[in-house]
Design a protein that fits this description.
36% of the residues lie in helices and 14% in strands. The protein has 374 residues and is of the alpha/beta class. The protein has 2 domains: 234 residues, Type I PLP-dependent aspartate aminotransferase-like (Major domain) (Aspartate Aminotransferase, domain 2); 124 residues, Aspartate Aminotransferase, domain 1. Helix 5 links the parallel strand 4 and strand 5. Bound molecules: pyridoxal-5'-phosphate.
Length: 374
């Protein structure tokens, strides 16, 4: 048996929608399909404004421009994350302040944030790992108390909730990814979610190279010009047409993934303790973006990945902590993030995609069982 780690999702009508783009003869951004995608996202998420972008990385860069991050500012975030969470702020030359994660959710540890706050702290960026929410009530209260922006990197979190609120709708700003590795996608794509409505106009200018082109298109001004520091963050109509097909059915897709996730959990919990499996706090509803297990150390992980690969199963590790990446490691000294470092060395992600078969999951779990029984 050969089981890939991921299979990019294809639903039925991507081609039909792409054909409509050709028929409309309009391919650039902010066309009909982009507008439709934004409407679906606004209704689903309850944000004041959704702006589809060509990646989540773009949306994160927009958050750093919108919050006017500059070299005097400090931004707190986890080191156990994808590079874009940090690079968006590093591009503005802010100081990144790393916070350790919780051993259960692998999310930023809300109890370790306040000790990192200084008079220079401008924003906290949380990452909802695997679509499981951070402890948002606590973090939001910290941001309010210290007048700090709250940004949610919800790259993996379509259809994920915290106490009934969709992730990305709780902070000032949120971001989603529609990269082909995500539950729904358009190859490369993302969205900026604006919850603080005073930021909407500026966000629209930033997306359009910093110009007020949107006002020109809406016939509010007779010519458009440069107002803000921005860039070209628009999603093209081709991407939006593809994404729209998938957005319409995302809940069904995620239900299918959750069935597979639950089967993994049921079978693995027969021989692995709870701490080695994903732990979902009761206030969180997730989308089965990732199924992972933890092993005792890096050697066990390497051997297990090799063993599974010999069985035709592609299992992979995840983030290398950013504070240990070549770009960062000589920048700041004495960074002590024990949970981040331990999780990074011991986590393994198992194959999970829409349509993975029950017998494939049973085969993967049996193989893991044999490995530990050897
Ligand atoms: C937490 C997180 N943030 C940001 C990104 C970047 O997303 P994109 O590839 O859409 O730019 C990813 C991508 O995997 C991610 O996992």
């Amino acid at each position: 048996m050969k089981i890939p780690f991921n299979k990019p999702l294809i639903v039925e009508d991507e081609f039909d929608n792409l054909k409509k783009v050709f028929e409309n003869d309009r391919f650039a951004g902010n066309g009909d399909f982009s507008k439709k995608c934004n409407k679906v996202l606004e209704n689903k998420i309850g944000c004041a404004k959704s702006i589809v972008t060509s990646s989540c990385t773009d949306a994160l860069e927009m958050t750093s421009l919108l919050t006017m991050i500059d070299p005097d500012d400090e931004v707190i975030m986890p080191s156990f994350t994808f590079v874009s969470t940090a690079s968006a702020f590093e591009l503005r030359r802010a100081k990144i302040v790393w916070c350790d994660i919780r051993p259960d959710t692998k999310n930023i540890d809300e109890n370790k944030i306040e000790e990192l706050i200084t008079s220079k702290t401008k924003a906290i960026v949380v990452v909802h790992y695997a679509g499981v929410a951070c402890e948002m009530d606590t973090i939001k209260a910290i941001c309010k108390k210290h007048s700090i922006y709250l940004i949610e990197d919800a790259a993996q979190s379509i259809d994920c909730y915290y106490k009934g609120k969709h992730l990305g709708s709780i902070g000032d700003l949120g971001t989603l990814s529609f990269h082909e590795t995500k539950n729904i996608h358009c190859g490369e794509g993302g969205a900026l979610l604006v919850n603080n409505s005073s930021m909407i106009q500026k966000a629209e200018f930033i997306r359009d190279k910093g110009t007020n082109r949107i006002q020109f298109l809406n016939k509010k001004v007779d010519k458009y010009t440069w107002h803000e520091l921005g860039s070209s963050y628009l999603m093209s109509e081709l991407q939006a047409a593809f994404l729209y097909s998938q957005l319409k059915v995302s809940e069904d897709i995620n239900k299918n993934r959750l069935k597979s996730w639950n089967l993994y959990y049921k079978l693995l919990s027969k021989f692995l303790p709870k701490e080695k499996l994903p732990q979902i706090p009761k206030e969180c509803t997730h989308n089965a973006h990732i199924f992972y297990i933890l092993v005792d150390n890096e050697d066990v992980r390497e051997n297990l990945i090799k063993y599974l690969s010999e069985k035709g199963i592609l299992a992979i590790f995840h983030y290398i902590p950013l504070h240990q990446a070549p770009y960062w490691k000589d920048k700041y000294k004495n960074i002590n993030l024990p949970i981040t470092e331990k999780v990074s060395k011991t986590i393994i992600r198992l194959p999970l995609f829409y349509g993975i078969k029950e017998n494939e999951i049973r085969y993967i779990v049996d193989s893991i069982h044999h490995f530990f029984d050897k």
